[in-house]
């Protein structure tokens, strides 16, 4: 359970530091707008996303079991975070995140990191695609400039609310959103190593400011971003409140553990390395406790940002620490500029994130899978979208493990971690 940073620093040199510095800056330019967008989509304040990226991102790299893992708020949490805030308030989310961190610490000490192998792949794929659908639907409002009468509570209410608000469509918002989407895709294809994501969002947001377009920005909707970190504080602890929030804490802990270990496995394939699963789970626990102490969101290893780090040349956890420090510097000295980012541009980013989460390259393989795996994936997806993530995970994992027991005499197919 030894953190990877202790291993890598034993032979650290100037060449590695230079590579980590460049990679850390590059991934920070990706993480910055994503952290803001994920916080907003989760029903939290934009600053909460920055806080999470700084505190949790730093701790995951410092204590984690992967050389190149990048941590922070991720799209997988949007649905559960939104639900907890709606039902229990933001203070309830902070307490649930704090409890989830404790659960992950216990899981790490009990060496439960290896249990990831027992989570059926169709379940992971099903709730990931389901979450992607919910995220994409939730961003249509800002992408096209609709004005909904009230905040929808679930997917079906979102769809009906968008249809009812179709007359409020905004041409300028749509132009900014779709332009951002096209720019991000083009820049990723033309210069995949370049931080094109932040450039695309900055370019369209600058267009809004210069042309005086009637388009919402972070500042116009939420006010100015803070320019310093708050003082850490324990969430209000009471037995009744903790019992009430235990189901949410368990879901957060499950998602954080699964997502981080999947990300670490994908990173291993990209760098021909080997992560330490129990150290990674311990790091996730510490990161979620740290995030909660600063009033942040749940955090986990982020597959897309980890892949960006590797492609940018990141070699050790120093790159992840650098990424967190760069975001901190932006908060301290560039909060006003970040406040001018346009909401349709951030919505376009999340729509693209949702598309990548669904892994369209694997849809064909899902259709060719065993019928029982197709049913398991479809059931988990439908329950995620129409019911509740807790129900989807419980039913999916239960049925998946039952299927595994039934097939115990069969040779299982090769397990393939997602590459989103």
UniProtKB/TrEMBL annotation:
Keywords, comma-separated and alphabetical: Membrane, Transmembrane, Transmembrane helix
A GO cellular component entry from the record: membrane
Protein location: Membrane
Transmembrane regions listed in the UniProt entry: 21-41, 47-63, 70-86, 92-110, 122-140, 169-187, 194-215, 245-267, 312-331, 337-355, 376-403
Chief site of localization: membrane
Top-rank lineage group of the source organism: Bacteria
Membrane topology (UniProt): Multi-pass membrane protein
One GO-annotated biological process of the protein: transmembrane transport
Domain SLC26A/SulP transporter: 17-376
Protein name: Sulfate permease, SulP family
Annotated organism of origin: Pontibaca methylaminivorans
């Amino acid at each position: 359970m030894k953190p990877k940073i202790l291993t890598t620093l034993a032979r650290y040199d100037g060449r590695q530091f230079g590579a980590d510095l460049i990679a850390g800056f590059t991934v920070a330019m990706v993480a910055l707008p994503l952290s803001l967008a994920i916080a907003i989509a989760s029903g939290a304040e934009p600053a909460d996303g920055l806080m999470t990226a700084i505190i949790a991102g730093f701790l995951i790299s410092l204590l984690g079991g992967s050389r190149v893992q990048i941590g922070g708020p991720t799209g997988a949490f949007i649905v559960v975070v939104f639900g907890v805030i709606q039902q229990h308030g933001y203070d309830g989310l902070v307490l649930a995140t704090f409890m989830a961190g404790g659960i992950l610490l216990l899981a790490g000490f009990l060496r439960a990191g290896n249990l990831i192998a027992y989570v059926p792949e169709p379940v992971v794929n099903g709730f990931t695609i389901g979450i992607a659908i919910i995220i994409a639907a939730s961003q249509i409002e800002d992408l096209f400039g609709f004005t909904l009468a009230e905040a929808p509570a679930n997917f079906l209410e979102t769809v009906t609310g968008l249809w009812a608000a179709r007359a409020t469509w905004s041409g300028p918002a749509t132009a900014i959103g779709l332009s951002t989407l096209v720019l991000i895709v083009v820049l990723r294809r033309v210069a995949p190593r370049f931080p094109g994501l932040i450039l695309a969002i900055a370019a369209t947001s600058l267009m809004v400011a210069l042309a005086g377009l009637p388009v919402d920005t972070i500042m116009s909707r939420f006010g100015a971003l803070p320019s310093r970190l708050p003082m850490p504080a324990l969430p209000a602890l009471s037995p009744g409140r903790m019992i009430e929030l235990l189901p949410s804490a368990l879901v957060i802990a499950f998602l954080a553990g699964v997502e981080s270990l999947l990300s670490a496995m994908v990173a291993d394939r990209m760098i021909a390395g080997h992560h330490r699963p129990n150290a990674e789970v311990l790091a996730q626990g510490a990161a979620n406790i740290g995030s909660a102490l600063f009033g942040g969101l749940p955090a986990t290893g982020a597959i897309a940002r980890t892949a960006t780090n590797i492609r940018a040349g990141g070699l050790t956890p120093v790159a992840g620490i650098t990424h967190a420090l760069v975001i901190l510097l932006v908060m301290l000295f560039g909060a006003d500029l970040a406040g001018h980012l346009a909401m349709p541009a951030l919505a376009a980013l999340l729509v693209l994130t949702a598309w990548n989460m669904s892994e369209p390259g694997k849809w064909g393989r899902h259709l060719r899978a065993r019928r029982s795996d197709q049913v398991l994936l479809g059931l988990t997806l439908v329950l995620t979208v129409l019911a509740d993530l807790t129900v989807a995970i419980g039913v999916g994992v239960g049925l998946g493990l039952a299927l595994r027991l039934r097939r115990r005499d069969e040779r299982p197919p090769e397990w393939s971690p997602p590459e989103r």
